Amino acid sequence: MAVSTKEKPDLQKKVHEVPHKPGVYLMRDRFNRVIYVGKARDLRKRVGSYFLPSKLAQADLKTRAMLHATWDFETHTVRSEAESVLLEGKLIKEYRPRYNVSFRDDKRFLLVRVDLSEEWPRFRLARFKKDDGSRYFGPYAHAGALRQTLNFMRKKFGVLTFGRGSPSERELKSATYQVPVRLSEINAEQYRERVLQAGEFLEGKSREMIATLEEEMRKAAKKMDFEKAAELRNMIDDLRSTTKPMRRFTRGSLPSTIDPMADVRALADALQLSRVPQVMECFDISNISTTHVVASMVCFRDGVPDKDNYRRYRVRTVDGHDPLARATGNFAGSLDPESFRGSD
Question: Which of 8, 10, 46, 9 lies closest to 25 in space, CA to CA?
Answer without folding.
Answer: 46
